[in-house]
Design goal:
Keywords: Repeat, WD repeat. It is globular and about 55 Å long. Helices cover about 5% and strands about 45% of the residues. The two termini are about 25 Å apart.
C-alpha cells in the first residue's frame, strides 16, 4: 500500500483554516452543513449568544494548561520550549516538569491521502473506517494501520459513520444513508445492501406528497444505533431526527427535536436518546411503545450555558454525558445513582475554539477542536477530570475522533493503562496517537496541569 507520510508543522495552529470549495450543484446544501460545524471563530456571530471572549491573558494560555475540572480553577503557565524538548527526550513525547511523569503520548502514524477534509471516523473489530469529501470510504486494518479496502458510491462527502453487527452505515452530503454488510468469507469483503430511504419508497412518497416524512430536507450530521430495539437514528440540519427500522430500512418516526439544527446524537445502552443542537441545549428522549406514531417523548432539556452544542459522548457505563460546545467548553452531566436523573457536573476548559468531536473509552475522554488540537482527559475516581495530553500536529480543525482501550484494544499489562486515538482533520490528514499511563494504586497518577506536546 502506498501511504504518504507527512511531517506535522511546529507552527501554531491556524484557527481560521479555510474550508475547501465544493461543486456548484451541491453548494447550497453543503454550505449549510459546513456552517453548522462552526470551525471559525467568526461563525459565532451567527448565533444569538455571546461566547466568552478569549482575549484575556489567562484564557490565552489555556491551550497549554487546563484546570482540573472547573473553568474557575487557576491556570498554570505553559512549559518553555526547552522543557518541551526535555519532555520529548525523556518521556517519548509526554510527561515532564510540572505535569504527569507517568503519562507518555506520541503520534505513531500520520497519513495523507489527498481525499480532502476528513469528516468521519468509525471503528469495529480491528478495522477503522474514514470518510471524507470524496466518494470513497477507506478501510484501515489494525494494528499495522494499513489500508485494506474501499467502499465506493456515486455520492460524495461522508459526513457520519456507524458500524454495528457487521453492518456499515454511512451518511452522505445528499441526505441519504448507504448500508454495507461486512463478511469475512475468503477475506474481508463489503457488500452494498441498500440506500436509505429506498428509491422506490421515496418516489411513491413524493407522488403522494409525503416525501418530507421519508427523507431529510437537509444534510445529515450524525448517526446513532439502538441495537436492542433494531433502530437507526439520523440527525440533520433540518432540525429533525429520523427513526429508521433496521430490519426493513423504513422511516417509522420523525422527531421534531429542536428549533435549530441538530448537530449530534447518541444512544445509551438502556435506549435513551440524547440530541444536541445549535439552540444551546441537549435533549433527552425516551421511547414508549404505547404512544403509536410518536413513541419518542421528551423527558428533560439540559441547558449548555448559552453555547451551541456540536458533539456528544457517553462514558461506557452511561454514568456521565459530555457535550462539546462552540465556546471551547466541554460540559458534563452526571447520572444520579438512585433517581437516574442527569445533574450538571461542571465544565472542562482548555480548547480555544469550538469542540467539534468527542469520544470516550474506559476512564478517558478525547476531544477534538477547531483550534487544531485534541485533548485527552482522565476521569478520576472522585469525579474530577485532569487533562493528560494536548495532541498537536494537525494544521486544520479536528473534525472526527475515535478511541480504543490499550494498544488497538490489546491488553498491555496490569501496570499500564492507556488508549489509542485516531483523529481526522479538515487538513486531510489522519493521525494515530498512543497514550500510556502507568498505574499507581489502581488509578492514573496525575497532578495539576497538563502536558503540551508538539510534533
Amino acid at each position: 500500500m502506498n501511504m504518504d507520510s507527512i511531517e506535522a508543522s511546529n507552527s501554531s495552529p491556524n484557527p481560521s483554516f479555510a474550508l475547501r470549495s465544493t461543486t456548484t450543484a451541491s453548494a447550497t446544501q453543503i454550505n449549510k452543513f459546513l456552517r453548522s460545524t462552526s470551525t471559525k471563530e467568526a461563525s459565532f456571530s451567527e448565533f444569538p449568544y455571546t461566547p466568552p471572549r478569549r482575549s484575556s491573558p489567562s484564557l490565552s494560555r489555556s491551550l497549554h494548561a487546563s484546570p482540573v475540572s472547573s473553568p474557575l480553577h487557576f491556570l498554570s503557565p505553559p512549559p518553555s520550549k526547552q522543557q518541551q524538548q526535555q519532555q520529548q527526550l525523556s518521556h517519548g513525547g509526554g510527561g515532564g516538569a510540572g505535569g504527569d511523569p507517568h503519562t507518555t503520548y506520541r503520534c505513531i502514524s500520520s497519513v495523507l491521502k489527498k481525499d480532502g477534509q476528513i469528516l468521519s471516523i468509525a471503528a469495529s473489530n480491528g478495522l477503522v473506517y474514514t470518510g471524507s469529501d470524496i466518494n470513497v470510504i477507506r478501510v484501515w486494518k489494525l494494528p499495522e494501520f494499513s489500508e485494506c479496502g474501499q467502499l465506493k458510491t456515486k455520492a460524495c462527502m461522508v459526513v457520519a459513520l456507524e458500524v454495528s453487527n457487521d453492518r456499515v452505515y454511512a451518511a452522505y452530503g445528499d441526505g441519504k444513508i448507504r448500508v454495507w454488510q461486512r463478511t469475512w468469507d475468503d477475506g474481508l469483503k463489503h457488500v452494498r445492501l441498500a440506500t436509505i430511504p429506498r428509491t422506490g419508497n421515496y418516489v411513491r412518497s413524493y407522488i403522494s406528497g409525503k416525501e418530507k416524512m421519508t427523507k431529510h430536507m437537509g444534510p445529515i450530521t450524525s448517526l446513532a444505533i439502538n441495537v436492542s430495539d433494531d433502530i437507526l437514528y439520523s440527525a440533520s440540519v433540518d432540525k429533525t431526527v429520523k427513526v429508521w427500522r433496521i430490519s426493513d430500512l423504513k422511516c417509522i418516526e420523525t422527531i421534531q427535536s429542536h428549533p435549530e439544527p441538530v448537530n449530534a446524537i447518541i444512544v445509551a445502552d438502556d435506549g435513551v436518546l440524547f440530541t444536541a443542537s445549535d439552540d444551546a441545549t441537549v435533549k433527552v428522549w425516551r421511547r414508549n411503545f404505547c404512544r403509536g406514531d410518536q413513541p419518542h417523548s421528551l423527558t428533560v432539556t439540559l441547558p449548555a450555558k448559552y453555547s451551541p452544542v456540536k458533539a456528544l459522548t457517553l462514558t461506557p457505563d452511561g454514568a456521565v454525558l459530555y457535550g462539546g460546545c462552540t465556546d471551547g467548553y466541554i460540559h458534563y452531566w452526571l447520572k444520579g445513582w438512585y433517581s437516574g436523573q442527569l445533574q450538571y457536573g461542571g465544565a472542562l476548559q482548555g480548547h480555544t475554539h469550538a469542540v467539534m468531536c468527542l469520544a470516550s473509552v474506559a476512564n478517558y475522554v478525547v476531544s477534538g477542536s477547531a483550534d487544531s488540537t485534541s485533548r485527552v482527559w482522565a476521569r478520576e475516581q472522585d469525579g474530577h477530570h485532569t487533562c493528560l495530553a494536548v495532541l498537536v500536529g494537525h494544521r486544520g480543525p479536528v473534525r472526527s475522533v475515535s478511541a480504543f482501550s490499550g494498544r488497538f484494544g490489546e491488553d498491555i499489562g496490569d501496570q499500564q493503562e492507556g488508549c489509542t486515538i485516531c483523529t481526522g482533520s479538515l487538513d486531510g490528514v489522519l493521525k494515530v496517537w498512543r497514550v500510556t499511563c502507568v498505574n499507581n494504586m489502581n488509578r492514573c497518577s496525575t497532578t495539576s496541569g497538563c502536558e503540551y506536546f508538539e510534533l
